[in-house]
Amino acid sequence: MDNLLRIQDLTQVFGTRNPNYAVDRVSFSMPDEPSILSLVGESGSGKSTIARIALGLMKPTSGKVYFKGTDIFTGDRKWQKQFRRDVQPVFQDPYSAFNPAYRLKRVFNIAVRNFDLAQDQRKAQARIEESLDSVGLDPDDVLDKYPHQLSGGQRQRVMLARLHLIRPRLIIADEPVSMIDASMRASFLKLLVSFRDNLGISTLFITHDLTTSMYLGGRIIVLYKGRIMEHGDTPDVTRSPQHPYAKLLINSIPVADPSQRWDSMLPASVDSANRASMNRDRCLFAERCGQVMETCWQQEPRVLPQENAVQRDVACHLYEKTLENN
Amino acid sequence: MTITLQIRDLSIGLQSTKKITQIISHVNLDVLPGEIIGIVGESGCGKSTLAIGALGLIETPHVLQSGSVLLTLPDGSTTDVVRSSPEALRDLRWRHIAYIPQGSMNIFNPVMRIRAQLTDTLVQHGITEREAIERVTHALHLVNLKPSVLDQYPHELSGGMKQRTAIAAAISMEPAVLIADEPTTALDVVTQRMILQELVKIRDTLGVAIIIISHDMGVMAQVADRIAVMYAGRIIEVGAVTDIFKAPLHPYAQALLGSILQSGHETDQVEILEGESPSPWNYPTGCRFNPRCPHTMDRCRTEVPDLILRRASHQVACHLLDEKVSNHG
Question: Is the dihedral of CA B289, B293, B295, B297 positive or negative?
Answer without folding.
Answer: positive
